[in-house]
Amino acid sequence: MAKPLRKATGVREVAPGVFELIAQAGRDPVTGRYRQVFRRFRGTLAEAKVARAELVAEVKRGRHVGGTATMDELCEEWLRELERKDRSPRTVDEYRRRYRHDIQPTLGSVRVSKVTTKMLTDLYGAHQRRGIAPASVHKIHATVSSMMSQACRWGWRTSNPAEWADPPAIVHEVPMVPTPAEVLRLIEEAKRSRRPEHAEVIYFAATTGARRGEICGLRLSRVDWEAGTVLIDRAIVKQAGRKVERPTKNRRSRLVAVDERVLAFLRAQLSEAEERAVVVATELVGDPYLLSCSVRGDEPWDPDTITQYFARVRDRLGLGHIEFKGLRRFMDTYGQELGFSMAQVAMRAGHDPAVAGRHYTGRVSQADRELATGLAQLLGGGRDR
How far apart are CA 28 and CA 12, in angstroms? Predict the structure, then answer.
């Protein structure tokens, strides 16, 4: 029978002869949360207690960072820095999961200053031998590289060892772009369903390049009915099972022209919301979501619902090769085939990085109006306003 794992104050055995040392590092000056420093140690429990006492002393002297910091400590500081920069919680959680699963078991207890390019190359090779796809190994490489770049900015290292580490080559597949005929089939099939409003969501995405979270995050104040424009500056994301409103994926705002069909769809959604509010003798919130099933318009659609519904419509038509993201690619591809520049199409989609997007002043240019009209007419939409 295996011996039970042992523990003591600030010491926890995670495997036979392998201990995790924990020391309190006071409160974070920004978040106010208590911080902890972790370190892996191999040896006996008595030796681990001594090592933990040394770690506590280092923390008190402020020597647990910089030259003596481990990869575990760098990771925690790096993730905290990403949170300070307001990176998406989902992105931070994905980095944390990837580090703990694919990097920490091998490099967690190694000092940042001791990590070499050879160590990283061996790490990538070990994952390849385990059968991990090259694209996943590239994500591991990107995580390590970003961590090490941050260490260099903080002065913990003078160079980034990931810069010379070579992850496996990736075979870049040609993105699958639906044709106008396929998008029209999707729209018509959605019209015949129990939720015909999803046909207009498909049309909206195909003519604006809006992401599903951006569509769900559209509020009344973002629509200029007279000018025929919508401001896309917020998006709905799922965080810990809850819907949260955040800036767009690349934190850029963009004003895009829309045709009469899109405006009619948004008006219909607003009218339905107003009718629901009247039925239950209440009023809409001051700035309601236009895609909402709540009686007060304060609860947006779930982006996952859009994806799931789209998948059902797509599968009924035998178009399993098309993803909802393909509608965004449709706008990109056919917008350029209609003769509009890559920069103009990128600004409409809110691509990042698009150098031209940095100079977008918020005014809908004539080129964007023509682009909106061309895409709408491609799918049988209304004429230019």
Answer: 24
